[in-house]
Amino acid sequence: MRKESYSLADLIEVTKPSPQRDDSLINCQYFAKCGGCQFQMLPYEDQLKHKKRIIEKAYSNFSGLNPEQVPAIKETMGSPLQYGYRTKLTPHFSLPFSRKKGPQKLTEVPNIGFMMKGRRTVMDIEDCPLGTDIVRTGLKNERKRVVDNLNQFKAGATLLVRENTKRIPKNKEEEDTSGNDTTRDVIRTEYPDYIEEKSYITDQKGISSEYIDDYLFRNVAGTFFQNNNSILSPFTQYSQTKIPP
């Protein structure tokens, strides 16, 4: 058997915090236990500097380039939003398992959420402050759907909550969105020229709509698409200024 060259440990207590650490910045009750976020205790500017160092070390250690060939890494572009930005969440749950009998039927509500840090165990997550308002609503509704239909699940599942955006020009007919598994929960915001409706999709094969400035993108809801649309406008504008004509 191969002997591991490292050890794993759980953080029990911070006895002497770093000068950079500010626990008042933590905005999630599951932080440090959930396997998702890593840096909520750091001021955002320090998070950006840390991410820059990660890229610098990656080039230095893994690129195979001579130091003089490594390009200078510029400052990390920050996100306009640090919370309430994720347009997609995929919570999941598992069936109880017996070594002799294999997967067992659900007899009680399982943990529904994300993997616990350092464990192959699902942690029960009732709310995720990273999600947009409509996605957080969808998470609560999907959790309730599992509870209400517990006997229908013969296996564990990965749930999907994907934001869907529709812009309705004022004084014009609404766009037909039939065929999408969208919900009745809608958040409406009025702008000078249109009304924007935020709903969510739970069908992996449904089509989600996403706007970057005035450009409309349609994607299969279950596939990957940038989950922080608040940064896409400044990011694409930056890219346009750097692409040669």
Automatic annotation (TrEMBL):
S-adenosyl-L-methionine binds at Q226. PROSITE patterns: SAM_MT_RNA_M5U. GO terms for biological process: methylation; RNA processing. InterPro entries: SAM-dependent_MTases_sf (IPR029063), U5_MeTrfase_fam (IPR010280). Keywords: Methyltransferase, S-adenosyl-L-methionine, Transferase. GO terms for molecular function: RNA methyltransferase activity. Belongs to the class I-like SAM-binding methyltransferase superfamily. RNA M5U methyltransferase family. This is TRAM domain-containing protein. It comes from Uncinocarpus reesii (strain UAMH 1704).
